[in-house]
Amino acid sequence: MPPRIENRRARHDYFVLETFEAGIQLAGTEVKSLREGKCLLADAYVAVERGEAWLRNVRIDEYTAGNRWNHAPSRARKLLLKAKEIETIARSVDRKGLTAIPLEVYFKGSWAKVKVGLCKGKAEHDKRQTKIAADHKREIDRAMKKAMR
């Protein structure tokens, strides 16, 4: 089974307000490279230009067994979304000051998909609160597990 490639940094730095599932327009060697899990989402974002959504700064490494028709690793890739979804993303980015970020890349059947999130940046104190909440949840889970023994 192909791996799910997550953007863990996004959940640490942003509050995810809404998500969309989008297809990606890929070249043949990009699909093979994604199936090997060779993708980096660290600085990626989604830009809306002329009514189309584009995935920028995503690095899909070249396929190792590729030849002269191998793809460019950091090229912009078109996202396949409905017009209403693209309009929602564009409006949220322009008016509300949100950021559209890819949260994960995965395969659904034989199709490559991207989960795009509309996100709002976290302040430093918000990051601390998130860490404290995760620690409390971990302690509660440990106590529940211990009690069940």
Description:
This protein is an alpha+beta fold. It has one domain (5-122): Beta Barrel (Small Protein B, Chain: A). It contains four helices and nine strands; from the N terminus they run βαβαβββββαββα. A seven-stranded antiparallel β-sheet has the order 1-8-9-2-7-5-4. It is globular and about 60 Å long.
Task: Tell me the CATH topology.
Answer: Small Protein B, Chain: A
Q: Please tell me the total number of domains.
A: 1
How do the SSEs run, as a string of H and E? Answer: EHEHEEEEEHEEH
- Beta fraction: 25-35%
Structural category: alpha+beta
For the record, the CATH architecture stands as: Beta Barrel
Q: C-alpha Rg, in Å?
A: 18 Å
How would you write the strand order of the largest sheet? Answer: 1-8-9-2-7-5-4
* DSSP helix fraction: 25-40%
Residue-averaged pLDDT, rounded?
89
Count of discrete alpha- or pi-helical segments spanning 4 or more residues: 4
Give the low-confidence spans: none
CATH superfamily caption: Small protein B
Largest sheet: 7 strands, antiparallel
In CATH, what is the class?
A: Mainly Beta
Give the tags.
4 helices; Small Protein B, Chain: A; 149 residues; alpha+beta; single chain; 35% helix; two-stranded antiparallel ribbon
